[in-house]
Amino acid sequence: SLNRHPGVRHSTLESLRLVRSSHSIVYGFLRFWDSLNFKKDMEFVGITVLFLDEKVNSVIHGFTLVGRANHYMSSLKAGSIVKVAHFEFARCSSMYKITDHPFLIGFISLTIIDEVITGAPEINLRSRLDCSTISK
Hints:
Mean pLDDT: 75
Low-confidence stretches: 1-8, 128-136
CATH class: Mainly Beta
Strand content: 35-45%
Strand order of the largest sheet: 1-2-3-5-4
Largest sheet: 5 strands, mixed, barrel
Order of helices and strands: EEEHEE
Distance between the termini: 39 Å
Number of helices: 1
Oligomer: single chain
Structural class: mainly beta
Shape: globular
Protein name: DUF223 domain-containing protein
Helix content: under 10%
Organism: Brassica oleracea var. oleracea
Radius of gyration: 14 Å
């Protein structure tokens, strides 16, 4: 369990490559919301999440499709520090870009999200919880 280890081992955004990753990253979890397809009668297609990176101090978004959305709901608590493992790190299409960050975190079937209670890096979530850094 993460909570038994002093200092959670993880990678930073700078060290990731554009592939499926077995690395773990630790983020401040800002918020999530339902993603809807406006062209198909507001059909629910998944959930979008916002994370705050500790090193770069920037907001990056993540996404999971509808089939995995319920699996992650209990792991998503605004204002928490989370460890995300086994994910896809990909370029973000300008069509779906909601932050200034050029990449996104894609949840795959192996993705694990756990809240970090002890040993978490310091991430100043208070200054970002208003999500004012989201691109308009």
